[in-house]
């Protein structure tokens, strides 16, 4: 007799850190392909990053991009505004419309970056208190970010935290009662610097993959300091990654995040309850994302397979996790009462 498979129902996932590459990088990803990849991965809401070309740093660029996103996306998309020194005057108006502000303190892909304590302080004061200021901060920049939260009594969210000392600083800041939150990525939870060597440019991103002791520290904080898991889906083409002199940093992740976390849950490294908090409840709470009625993801938590089990929807077409044994398959995604994914097929996707 065949075992009856017991399916599990999760709320729609909210991925708060995604690069959709519109405008200027549409050969890597666009709203249609990126949102299809999101749905295939059980993600029904995503937040798009502003490090595009040109970057989304004015009300005009933000509005044009958000309108296009609404028209072309298969899931719900909320776009960040980017902080820049040149367009600081745009912040009050952007603050009325954009979901949150992203500020790059350290060098990464794209031209967006703000340095200088004075500039950081001005931005931290100009951005509305009730909305989140999200930081790309590595090392000492994390400390500076905590200081901004303390000094200006404002909400600060740390993107892709990856090092033991950083997660410990954030843990301390939370104990002091500061309004800080943080996310970690699946690649920093499941890969280390040894994998970076094997993967070459396909394992290169910012922050870089870390030591196993850093990875272990993240897992130690998975039920406490870490508020959410976000993919930092950062698609670049295989040609750009493998055939260029200076390969751009970043790896795709929309379609691997849920299978990887389901695998960790199946192995007992985190509970299914915590998985739901990290992927759905906290991301929506931190950014005030609207609820999606009649929206859910049906998974088979017992299904073992080699990732990916379908042709990837991300336009870049590759994953650093190809060949990974995983346990947990997405069977169906329902968005506002309508079935949008069934067994790896995104119904509205047009190739
Ligand atoms: C991101 C990208 O490609 O836009 N790259 C990355 O390595 N994470 C930028 C970023 O999130 O810092
Ligand atoms: Zn307005
Ligand atoms: Zn970043
Ligand atoms: Zn990113």
Computed structural class: alpha/beta
> Total number of β-strand segments?
14
Could you describe the largest sheet, including whether it forms a barrel? 6 strands, parallel
Task: Record the strand order, biggest sheet.
Answer: 5-6-7-8-9-10
Q: Segments where pLDDT lies below 50 for 5+ residues? A: none
Overall pLDDT score: 97
Beta-strand content bin: 15-25%
Number of discrete helical segments: 12
Radius of gyration: 19 Å
Measured as a percent range, the helix fraction is: 25-40%
Span from first to last CA?
40 Å
The small-molecule ligands in this entry are: N-carbamoyl-L-aspartate, zinc ion
Q: SSE order, as H and E?
A: EEHEHEEHEHEHEHEHHHEHHHEEEE
User: Shape, please?
Assistant: globular
Kindly summarize this structure in a few lines.
33% of the residues lie in helices and 20% in strands. A hairpin with a 2-residue loop joins strand 13 and strand 14.
Characterise this structure.
This protein has helices spanning 31-40, 59-72, 91-97, 117-126, 140-151, 164-175, 186-190, 193-199, 212-220, 238-242, 257-266, 272-287; strands spanning 8-11, 13-18, 43-48, 76-79, 81-82, 101-104, 133-136, 156-158, 180-184, 228-229, 296-306, 325-335, 338-342, 345-346. The N and C termini lie far apart (40 Å). β2, α1 and β3 (43-48) form a beta-alpha-beta unit. The mean pLDDT is 97. α5 packs parallel to α6 (164-175). The relative contact order is 0.16. With 351 residues, it is of the alpha/beta class. The strands form three sheets. A six-stranded parallel sheet has the order 5-6-7-8-9-10. Residues 93, 96-97 line the site of one zinc ion (ZN).
